[in-house]
Amino acid sequence: VISEFAKGTAECDAAKQSLGDTCCYNYPDNPCMLCRSETEFMDLRALEEIDYNGESMTCFDLSKRLGPEENDSQMCTSAQKEHWDSCCYNQCTLCEGQGIKWWNEVEVDGEPLNCGELDAMLYADETEVGTENCTDVLSNYKGECCYDYPNDPCDVCTKEGGEKHTLMPNEEVDYEGSTFTCAEVNNFLSPFESSSDQCGEVKDLASDTCCFDRCSLCGEGARLDAEIFVDVDSEEGSCADIESGLFQERTIDGSENCTEARSLHYDACCFEIPSSPCQLCATDEYMHHTAEIAFNDDKVTCKSASNYLMEREETSSQTCSNAKATLGETCCYSICDMCGEYDLDWDVFVSFEGVGEMSCGDFNEYFREEAVVDGSGQCEEIKGEYFDTCCYQSPTSSCQLCKQGDKFFDLNNNVEVDFNGPTTCYEVANFMSRRTEDTDQVCAVTQTSLFDECCYEKCNLASEPGTYPDWAAEVEMDGNKATCLELEDAIKEAAIPKDSKDCDSLQQAFSPTCSYSIPENACDICPDNAVSIELSAEWNGKEMKCSDIKSRISSREESDRDVCKDAQASLQDSCCIDQCEVCDKSQETDFVMTVYHNGVTKQCTEVDTYFYEKSILASSEECSATKSAHSDCCYTEPETPCNLCKRGESEYFDLMGTNSVTYQGATMTCTEVSDMMFRREEEAGDTCSTAKEDLFDACCDTKCALCDGKGLEAGVKVSFEGRMMTCLELDLGLGPASIEAGSDQCNEIVSQHESYCCYEKPESPCRICPGDQTGVDKEAKVNYLGTETTCESLSNYLGSREEQQGEACRAASSDHAEDCCYERCLLCGDGKADWETFVTYEGQSVACGDFEWILRGKNIAAGSDQCDAVKDEFYDKCCYEPPDTSCNLCHVDRNYLDVSADIQINYQGSQMKCLNLYNSLFVREGAESDQCQAAKSNHADECCFEKCNMCQIGFIDTTANVYVDGNEMSCSALDMRFRKDIIVEGSTQCSEKRADYSDACCYTIPDNPCRVCPTGSDVNGEVSVDFYGEVKTCEEIGNKLALSEEAGSQTCSATQQDFSNQCCFERCAVCADGYNLNWEVDVEYNRAQIACGEFDNIIRGNAIQKGTQECSSLQSTYSSACCYNYATAAGGGAAAKTNLAQVVTTGFLNTNLDTSTLSPAEKEDAKTVFQNLIKNTLEREGVLPSGSMVTVTDIDDQGRVAYEIEMNIDDRAMASVSGQITSAPPETSTLGDISNEAVSAIGTTLSNPTLLEAISSEIRGEAPLVSDQTVADKLSSVSVTDFTLEETNLATAGNTEVTTTGQFNTNIDTTSLTTAQKEEAIDVLEDSLVNALQEQGVLSENDSVTVTDINDAGEVQYEVDLYVDPEIDTAFDDISSALVAELDSTLSNPETLEEIANGIREESAGASDPNAAEELSTADVFESSLLEEETSVTIRGESTEVT
Predict the structure, then answer these.
(1) Residue 24 and residue 356: Cα distance in Å, rounded?
(2) Could you tell me which residues come within 8 angstroms of residue 1193 by beta carbon, excluding any fewer than 6 positions away?
């Protein structure tokens, strides 16, 4: 009928009016679904034929017919009750919650099917869960067909680093004798993690065939205009054709063809995607989509023009502004706004001409459809007629029809009343709550006049205090079965009131079935095991899943009831399993940590979920293997958790949560590290200390505070980075954004927003109701400065801003104290409330201590009837006078015993646990009171015991684990279990436990703890070693020795000898002894600027050893910038100037000492003796300047002692040797001369044709080592043909830097190289150039060479940086030579050598190790020499170092 008429015609409107009530319905809030109830959601047998109200239809037809009904309507619940069993079933799903390997082929009943077809067959056959067919299919095929969704799925065309190449789906690859398309290969990989071996193997095989770095005509950031036509090889073609051709020809991004295509067609075919697209119409406007306009010299619709502007124009562009100005009026409009700032009442119906009866809310749809423009005559006419009916201002606190005082009653929905005409109580209540304030007079009048007709207390089947309704329970009524929920709906529909005869009858008949109470000690049907999720059993005549039985019984039954005991006995074999768990019960499972399990990255707790879902037994091999592989998941909860940003006892810093750090080999945010430390580590533990040492500077600081020391205007809005936010949101965001206090960014933010967001806090905040016993009436309202507000809001406002003695506070107190203040009701007066005692108040169980807050929240005043009633009922139960000395039930015969917490006793006629009695006596009774003594006499023997002490001598090793009943647990957890299991001291059980576990769990602290590493060396904590059959870190070994072994013991010596070589190293220090580290100075490291302090942490974290080439390189590069001398440093800030030069010389002493049988620790003792003797001898001879250091670096098996001497040379030291220089020093060279000479040397060297050929040969020799074959081919025939020097720049800053740039020519063709290949070629050229210059002696280790570019013609651009001191003086060479000569002379003197030997033999008696002492006792020194070739001069900053 409707389709015959045009929209908007009179015929259409008449048809809609006459047929609308019959054909149309309002969408329900919760639509009825035939197979969905409050507790179940099942599948629909769509084609099943049924009879509904005498009509034959399918279940699908019935479900659709029920759609317009509410889910709790009578029609819906009746249909569900009648047809649930016929129409609804629980569908068997092959891979519930998992992915299907649809391509895998399996054989089902002799027929080949893929997994996708098998799953579809289950749906087609409407196979139910729990049927034999479902169980067979799942057990036989689930493993082959299902997979857990990976977190990061494998993709054959995703390269390392995340770069995505293009897949060619139809290309084919061969794998194990079969051919697959690339699309199939990619699908096969989807179940695997990108990090898995399977993913890597297949990608290696297929990625070259299936993937390529596709050339896109428009690249990133631009879009293709596919329909544009351009000239393609003298023929017309579209931009889409060009893009398709690039794909078909496998054109590589960056290739010559790609570059050519872009140069020819980019401008015509591509347009940049705007970052802020132009919107023709404002967001609150509508568009005349089909209106035609002139745009870009063409006639188009407004919609087309809008799409063009959004795709191509920025909001800030001139084109956008012009389009809005010229087209906005034609294309854009605002629909009529009926109510403006008021609310539109959707539930009110009006009669509107041409439409008929309609909701006020439907006006918006009408305005949109008819394009009724705001401000038009039609709009104003409609508003004038319907505004008062349809528009209203929402109440702040709405009127509730069935509320009297603080009590709410039930609404009798269907009763008809007269309220401005006939209506129902439901409609009246709905109208009043939407449109009327609860303080309006009309609210009170309506409540009074209609209460008796509309309001009542409904009959409640769960009427007893502490009981809850059991909606799913079934009852039988009039021969029919119904759920308690259906019975509840029937009571509500019939409006059966409380205390009526019908209610009493219903409660007597059905309350025991339809209500239950939460047990205090819930029943566990499998107390010693887990409940299987897969198994089913019969319970109360029904076959139910074991997990459902557990849920029902545990929520309803006490553990000591017969129902619970019967369930435990009958269900033990059918429901209970010894389920595998990742961690033992004594440990916690880390819910954040992820592990790689069954090819998928999971959280540790998800592994437990897997065990639960698969019913994996603890005795299975899978359980043992998984627990062993993922033991890192388990930890003992710390007693005092580690706070990463806490220093000392009370200094706390803010966490810079978003900063990234490397911890335990992984990149993590500081928030993640902090959470891990707090979750797993003790504050006093080594792991916590190490984490703080390594990460504090990177993660902890004082965050920027918007209103530091001031109050924050939390609700005020400001604009920050282009977005409106409250001051509170802005302040909270500064910490996670890692904005530090005092930074430029922080200061800028504070200066910009402080005046809007901050206010000065009062020193003595205003209280309009002063006094501890005086409260503020939260609900009372007053008029303050012309604005109505609550007393609570006024009190909070004045308290945050005004001083107690201020004028504003005194005025507010004077004006409003009478209205706002009252004396609070205190249940216990001056006494104390017993928090351990619970009472029932208003149907709820509450602790006595909570009454203070309950009474305060209800504004109950002292002396009121309500206050007196509460005191009369609860004072004796809840209140007591605290004793001076508390009664301790288990303080018996001067011994403090443990409490048997769970033992049940009868105390003064009441059943309670010993722990409850203990706590009650402690807070209520005095130690000498009669009640205390009587309780001890009657109950101490039952409740108290002396716990078995596992370690009679020594302490419990909290790091040790033992196996108890097949389960691993920590010794501290075992000791706590003694208390729980009530194992008594002196009992046979105690003796047995102590014999079994004390050796493993107990230790005594040694007087002189054993150290695994000798003095001067550190433990490399990250190294793992085989510690007598068990893998442990060196740090763990060191901790264990220090806690349990005496130095010099056989165990200590054996462990040192076995593990010191693997575990110990001399740490590389940035600064030498006598120098301080300047933490704040920035240096360049790995192409980033970092502070010297952070750089020092990197060296420590990487366990770089002293004396290694890496250590020497780092020290030579960074010590001058990062270190300053104690004596001469200015302190703080940047590194201070020093006039010291440093001379470092090395040499040997030849002795007859045999060290071949010495352990590393013993060898260290010998080195210390030689070190002290050499230093003492040189100081006595007067040739070692003050502050100098002697280090013996090695003693080999032949007794050759290698030593190093560092001398700090000041003015006095220079004067002492300057007289030995016979010739006058030459004139100091100028900086220009030195620079020119250095640059000239480079030019002369690199102009030598022979050297150029040598460079060429070296490059060709390096070529086969290059990983990229294309680059290798290019370099294999390289030739360097020419060299020139270009401009030279000179810069001085501490070190003088001479920078020169140059070029040399090669025959390398780079036109076909990618950017990455070109970079690799540059690296090879750079290394070859450095080697050539260093071999010629014109480039030092501190100088650097950088190849900056190589063009298509093979011309190589490079830069050389030389470091030259601006004040270098050749006199330093003479001074250093004199110092070295004097040392050589002294140490070559036979008398000196004999004196050193005598001193060694004398010192040997004091050596701690007997073997070392024996070897030293016969030591002899007979030769010494200095290595002149290792002495050179280097100038650093303002100081000179001679090496």
Answers:
(1) 14
(2) 1107, 1146, 1202, 1203, 1204
Q: Which helix (H) or strand (E) is 1192 found in, with range?
A: strand 1189-1195
Backbone φ, ψ for residue 736 (5° rounding):
-60, -25
**Cβ atoms of 1071 and 1083 closer than 8 Å:** no
CB 814 within 8 A of CB 798: no
- Say which amino acid occupies 78: S
Nearest to 1115 by CA among 770, 689, 1443, 736: 1443
Give me the count of residues in the chain: 1443
C-alpha–C-alpha distance, residues 1216 and 1211, integer Å = 9
pTM over 0.70: no
CA dihedral 488, 490, 496, 500 (to 10 degrees): -70
Q: Which pLDDT belongs to residue 59? A: 93
Dihedral, CA atoms, 1025, 1030, 1035, 1039, nearest 10 degrees? -140
> Which tokens is 780 given?
């009372």
Amino acid (one-letter) located at 188: F
* Alpha carbon distances (Å) from 494 to 432, 547, 669, 762: 24, 37, 61, 60
φ and ψ at 1252, to 5 degrees? -60, -40
At residue 911, φ and ψ (nearest 5 deg) are -80, 135
User: In this structure, how many other beta carbons lie within 10 angstroms of the beta carbon of residue 1009?
Assistant: 15
Name the residue among 373, 261, 279, 366 with its Cα closest to residue 317.
279
Full DSSP string of 332-392? EEPBP-SSTTSEE-TT-EEEETTTEEEETTHHHHHHHHHT-BTTSHHHHHHHHHHHHHHEE
Show Cβ contacts of residue 740 under 8 Å, excluding neighbours closer than 6 positions.
Answer: 656, 701, 702, 703, 704, 746
Give the residue ranges of the chain where pLDDT is below 50.
Answer: 1126-1141, 1210-1243, 1245-1246, 1251, 1266, 1271, 1274-1275, 1280, 1283-1297, 1364-1376, 1378-1380, 1382-1383, 1386-1387, 1425-1443
Helix axes 1249-1262, 1231-1246, angle to 10 degrees: 70
CA neighbor of 879 nearest in space, from 839, 928, 934, 932: 839
Q: What is the DSSP string of 740-771?
A: BTTSHHHHHHHHHHHHHHEEPPPSSB--SS-S
Distance CA 269, CA 264 (A): 10
d(CA 638, CA 134): 47
Cβ 439 vs Cβ 397: under 8 Å: yes
Asked if residue 425 lies in contact with residue 450, where contact means CB atoms within 8 angstroms, the answer is yes
Alpha-carbon distances, residue 173 vs 180, 213, 247 (angstroms): 6, 18, 19
Place of tokens 């078995």: 948
Q: Which is nearest to 622 in space by CA: 633, 611, 632, 631?
A: 611
790 half-sphere exposure, CB direction, 13 A CA radius: 10
- C-alpha distances in angstroms, 1054 versus 1026, 1042, 1416? 14, 14, 22
Distance in angstroms (rounded) separating the CA atoms of residues 1229 and 284: 78
Neighbour count for residue 880 (Cβ, 10 Å): 17
Q: Helical H runs in 925-1049?
A: 930-943, 971-980, 988-1001, 1034-1044
Do 229 and 186 meet the contact criterion of CB atoms below 8 Å apart?
Answer: no
In degrees and rounded to multiples of 5, residue 1153 shows phi and psi of -70, 125
Rounded to whole angstroms, the Cα distance separating 107 from 995 reads 59
Q: Which of 352, 328, 343, 455 is nearest to 392 (CA)?
A: 343
Please count the CA atoms within 13 angstroms of the CA of 1394 that sit on its side-chain side.
3
* pLDDT per residue as tens digits for the range 1335-1364: 555 566 667 778 778 777 667 676 767 554
| Under 8 Å between Cβ of 770 and 818 | no
